[in-house]
Amino acid sequence: IQLTQSPSSLSASVGDRVTITCRASQGISSYLAWYQQKPGEAPKLLIYSASTLESGVPSRFSGTGSGTEFTLTISSLQPEDFATYYCQRLNAYPPAFGLGTKLDIK
Amino acid sequence: VQLQESGPQLVKPSETLSLTCTLSGDSFGLYHWAWIRQSPGTGLEWIAYVHYSGGANLNPSLKSRLSISIDTTKSQFSLRLASVTAADTAVYFCARQQSSYDLGNYMDVWGTGITVTVSS
Fold first, then answer.
1. Which of A1, A53, B27, B80 lies at a C-alpha separation of 20 to 30 Å from A74?
2. Distance, in angstroms, between A55 CA and closest chain B CA?
Protein backbone atom coordinates (compact mmCIF):
# COMPACT_ATOMS: atom_id res chain seq x y z
CA ILE A 1 0.00 0.00 0.00
CA GLN A 2 1.57 3.26 -1.15
CA LEU A 3 1.13 6.67 0.45
CA THR A 4 1.15 9.80 -1.70
CA GLN A 5 1.50 13.18 -0.05
CA SER A 6 0.54 16.46 -1.65
CA PRO A 7 1.83 18.97 -2.15
CA SER A 8 5.49 17.96 -1.94
CA SER A 9 6.34 21.53 -0.92
CA LEU A 10 4.37 24.49 0.26
CA SER A 11 5.13 28.11 1.06
CA ALA A 12 2.99 29.90 3.61
CA SER A 13 3.04 32.80 6.05
CA VAL A 14 2.72 32.97 9.81
CA GLY A 15 -0.98 32.94 10.66
CA ASP A 16 -2.03 31.03 7.53
CA ARG A 17 -4.22 27.94 7.60
CA VAL A 18 -2.46 25.05 5.88
CA THR A 19 -3.71 21.65 4.77
CA ILE A 20 -1.56 18.69 3.70
CA THR A 21 -3.07 15.61 2.09
CA CYS A 22 -2.02 11.97 2.26
CA ARG A 23 -3.66 9.43 -0.04
CA ALA A 24 -3.36 5.67 0.38
CA SER A 25 -3.48 3.38 -2.65
CA GLN A 26 -5.85 1.09 -0.73
CA GLY A 27 -8.13 1.65 2.23
CA ILE A 28 -6.36 1.70 5.58
CA SER A 29 -9.29 2.61 7.85
CA SER A 30 -7.90 5.12 10.39
CA TYR A 31 -4.44 3.58 10.58
CA LEU A 32 -2.50 6.75 9.84
CA ALA A 33 -0.07 8.95 11.74
CA TRP A 34 1.49 12.32 11.05
CA TYR A 35 5.00 13.41 12.03
CA GLN A 36 6.86 16.70 11.97
CA GLN A 37 10.59 16.78 11.28
CA LYS A 38 12.93 19.74 11.52
CA PRO A 39 16.42 19.72 9.96
CA GLY A 40 18.91 17.68 11.97
CA GLU A 41 16.21 16.28 14.26
CA ALA A 42 14.23 13.08 14.55
CA PRO A 43 10.62 12.98 13.45
CA LYS A 44 8.13 13.98 16.13
CA LEU A 45 4.75 12.28 16.42
CA LEU A 46 1.86 14.72 16.01
CA ILE A 47 -1.21 12.61 15.36
CA TYR A 48 -2.07 8.91 15.35
CA SER A 49 -5.20 6.98 14.51
CA ALA A 50 -5.80 9.65 11.85
CA SER A 51 -7.18 12.22 14.27
CA THR A 52 -5.86 11.65 17.81
CA LEU A 53 -3.52 14.40 18.94
CA GLU A 54 -0.39 13.16 20.69
CA SER A 55 0.02 14.49 24.22
CA GLY A 56 1.73 17.87 24.28
CA VAL A 57 1.05 18.74 20.64
CA PRO A 58 -0.62 22.13 20.18
CA SER A 59 -4.30 22.10 19.33
CA ARG A 60 -3.71 24.11 16.12
CA PHE A 61 -2.76 20.73 14.61
CA SER A 62 -5.61 18.47 13.57
CA GLY A 63 -6.05 15.38 11.46
CA THR A 64 -9.04 14.01 9.60
CA GLY A 65 -9.87 11.22 7.21
CA SER A 66 -10.32 7.50 6.89
CA GLY A 67 -10.05 4.91 4.16
CA THR A 68 -7.83 6.38 1.46
CA GLU A 69 -7.76 10.14 2.03
CA PHE A 70 -6.35 11.95 5.02
CA THR A 71 -5.52 15.55 5.85
CA LEU A 72 -3.32 17.34 8.33
CA THR A 73 -4.39 20.90 9.06
CA ILE A 74 -2.48 23.60 10.89
CA SER A 75 -5.06 26.23 11.77
CA SER A 76 -2.73 29.19 12.29
CA LEU A 77 0.91 28.72 11.35
CA GLN A 78 3.48 29.62 13.96
CA PRO A 79 7.19 30.23 13.23
CA GLU A 80 8.13 26.88 14.82
CA ASP A 81 5.82 24.98 12.45
CA PHE A 82 8.03 25.41 9.40
CA ALA A 83 9.30 21.88 8.89
CA THR A 84 8.73 18.74 6.83
CA TYR A 85 5.63 16.66 7.53
CA TYR A 86 5.26 12.93 6.90
CA CYS A 87 2.32 10.59 7.00
CA GLN A 88 2.76 6.94 7.98
CA ARG A 89 0.57 3.93 7.41
CA LEU A 90 0.05 2.07 10.68
CA ASN A 91 -1.52 -1.18 9.58
CA ALA A 92 0.34 -4.19 8.28
CA TYR A 93 4.09 -4.70 8.07
CA PRO A 94 6.31 -3.09 7.14
CA PRO A 95 4.89 0.29 8.21
CA ALA A 96 5.43 2.79 5.38
CA PHE A 97 5.92 6.53 5.22
CA GLY A 98 4.97 9.14 2.66
CA LEU A 99 7.72 11.12 0.95
CA GLY A 100 7.01 14.25 2.93
CA THR A 101 5.70 17.79 2.49
CA LYS A 102 8.19 20.58 3.09
CA LEU A 103 6.56 23.65 4.55
CA ASP A 104 8.60 26.82 4.33
CA ILE A 105 8.15 30.50 4.88
CA LYS A 106 6.72 32.57 2.04
CA VAL B 1 12.06 8.26 28.25
CA GLN B 2 15.20 8.75 26.19
CA LEU B 3 16.83 6.73 23.46
CA GLN B 4 20.38 7.12 22.20
CA GLU B 5 21.97 5.45 19.20
CA SER B 6 25.66 4.53 19.15
CA GLY B 7 28.06 2.73 16.87
CA PRO B 8 30.57 3.25 14.06
CA GLN B 9 29.66 6.06 11.70
CA LEU B 10 31.83 4.82 8.86
CA VAL B 11 31.53 1.29 7.54
CA LYS B 12 33.32 -0.23 4.58
CA PRO B 13 31.36 -1.82 1.74
CA SER B 14 30.63 -5.53 2.25
CA GLU B 15 31.15 -5.25 6.01
CA THR B 16 28.55 -5.38 8.78
CA LEU B 17 26.89 -2.29 10.21
CA SER B 18 26.29 -2.62 13.96
CA LEU B 19 24.30 -0.13 16.00
CA THR B 20 23.07 -0.09 19.58
CA CYS B 21 20.25 1.89 21.13
CA THR B 22 20.33 2.59 24.86
CA LEU B 23 17.10 3.22 26.74
CA SER B 24 16.96 5.46 29.81
CA GLY B 25 14.11 6.67 31.96
CA ASP B 26 11.90 3.65 31.43
CA SER B 27 11.91 -0.12 31.06
CA PHE B 28 11.26 -2.09 27.89
CA GLY B 29 7.84 -3.10 29.16
CA LEU B 30 5.30 -4.23 26.63
CA TYR B 31 6.41 -1.97 23.81
CA HIS B 32 8.10 -2.81 20.57
CA TRP B 33 11.51 -1.22 19.96
CA ALA B 34 12.19 -0.23 16.39
CA TRP B 35 14.85 0.90 13.98
CA ILE B 36 14.08 3.33 11.16
CA ARG B 37 16.47 4.86 8.67
CA GLN B 38 16.34 7.93 6.49
CA SER B 39 18.26 8.75 3.35
CA PRO B 40 17.71 11.41 0.69
CA GLY B 41 17.11 8.73 -1.89
CA THR B 42 14.53 6.58 -0.15
CA GLY B 43 13.06 8.77 2.59
CA LEU B 44 11.99 7.18 5.86
CA GLU B 45 12.22 3.38 5.90
CA TRP B 46 11.10 1.18 8.78
CA ILE B 47 13.73 -1.51 9.34
CA ALA B 48 12.57 -3.79 12.17
CA TYR B 49 11.29 -4.06 15.68
CA VAL B 50 12.20 -6.25 18.64
CA HIS B 51 10.15 -7.04 21.73
CA TYR B 52 11.54 -7.54 25.23
CA SER B 53 10.63 -11.22 24.88
CA GLY B 54 13.01 -11.44 21.93
CA GLY B 55 10.28 -11.60 19.33
CA ALA B 56 10.95 -9.52 16.23
CA ASN B 57 9.60 -8.43 12.86
CA LEU B 58 11.99 -7.54 10.04
CA ASN B 59 11.43 -5.57 6.85
CA PRO B 60 11.34 -8.18 4.05
CA SER B 61 13.49 -5.95 1.85
CA LEU B 62 16.35 -6.23 4.37
CA LYS B 63 15.57 -9.51 6.08
CA SER B 64 18.29 -11.58 4.44
CA ARG B 65 21.00 -9.24 5.79
CA LEU B 66 19.41 -8.16 9.05
CA SER B 67 19.43 -9.26 12.65
CA ILE B 68 18.07 -7.52 15.71
CA SER B 69 18.49 -8.33 19.38
CA ILE B 70 17.70 -7.01 22.82
CA ASP B 71 19.60 -7.06 26.12
CA THR B 72 17.23 -6.11 28.91
CA THR B 73 20.01 -6.26 31.52
CA LYS B 74 21.83 -3.43 29.76
CA SER B 75 18.68 -1.60 28.61
CA GLN B 76 19.90 -1.90 25.03
CA PHE B 77 18.71 -3.22 21.72
CA SER B 78 20.87 -3.66 18.67
CA LEU B 79 20.83 -3.85 14.90
CA ARG B 80 23.23 -5.68 12.62
CA LEU B 81 23.07 -5.24 8.85
CA ALA B 82 25.46 -7.38 6.84
CA SER B 83 27.05 -6.90 3.42
CA VAL B 84 26.42 -3.17 3.33
CA THR B 85 26.64 -1.04 0.21
CA ALA B 86 26.47 2.69 -0.45
CA ALA B 87 22.68 2.33 -0.56
CA ASP B 88 22.75 1.65 3.20
CA THR B 89 24.19 5.09 3.88
CA ALA B 90 21.57 6.86 5.99
CA VAL B 91 20.64 8.37 9.32
CA TYR B 92 19.57 5.52 11.57
CA PHE B 93 17.02 6.16 14.30
CA CYS B 94 15.86 3.92 17.12
CA ALA B 95 12.35 4.46 18.44
CA ARG B 96 9.68 3.16 20.77
CA GLN B 97 6.88 1.64 18.72
CA GLN B 98 3.36 1.55 20.05
CA SER B 99 1.59 -1.47 18.63
CA SER B 100 -2.05 -2.40 19.08
CA TYR B 101 -4.83 -3.84 16.99
CA ASP B 102 -6.97 -0.77 17.57
CA LEU B 103 -4.40 1.95 16.92
CA GLY B 104 -1.80 0.29 14.72
CA ASN B 105 1.95 0.74 14.83
CA TYR B 106 3.43 4.19 15.34
CA MET B 107 6.62 5.57 16.84
CA ASP B 108 6.10 7.95 19.75
CA VAL B 109 9.63 8.30 21.15
CA TRP B 110 12.70 8.64 18.92
CA GLY B 111 16.43 8.76 19.43
CA THR B 112 18.38 11.67 17.97
CA GLY B 113 19.73 9.56 15.12
CA ILE B 114 23.19 8.52 14.01
CA THR B 115 24.60 9.13 10.55
CA VAL B 116 26.21 6.05 9.05
CA THR B 117 28.22 6.30 5.85
CA VAL B 118 29.22 3.27 3.81
CA SER B 119 32.46 4.04 2.03
CA SER B 120 35.90 2.58 1.52
1. A1
2. 10
Summarize pLDDT for A65-81 with one digit per residue, the tens. 999 999 999 999 999 99
Residues B93/B101, Cβ–Cβ less than 8 Å: no
- Residues in chain A whose Cβ is within 8 Å of chain B: 31, 33, 41-45, 48-49, 52, 54, 86, 88, 90-91, 93-100
Over the stretch A3-38, which tens digit does the pLDDT of each residue have? 999 999 999 999 999 999 999 999 999 999 999 999
In sequence order, which residues have a C-beta less than 8 Å from that of residue B64 and are 6 or more positions away? none
pLDDT digits (tens, 9 = 90+) for B29-73: 889 999 999 998 789 999 999 998 889 999 999 999 999 999 999
Rounded to whole angstroms, the Cα distance separating A55 from B14 reads: 43
Q: Cα angle at B66 between B61 and B70, to 5 degrees?
A: 130
Give the Cα-Cα-Cα angle B13, B15, B20 (nearest 5 degrees). Answer: 115
10 Å CB burial of residue A86 (0-12, 13-18, 19+) is buried
Nearest CB among A48, A88, A97 relative to B103 is that of A48
Cα–Cα distance measured from residue A86 to residue A101, given in angstroms and rounded to the nearest whole number: 7
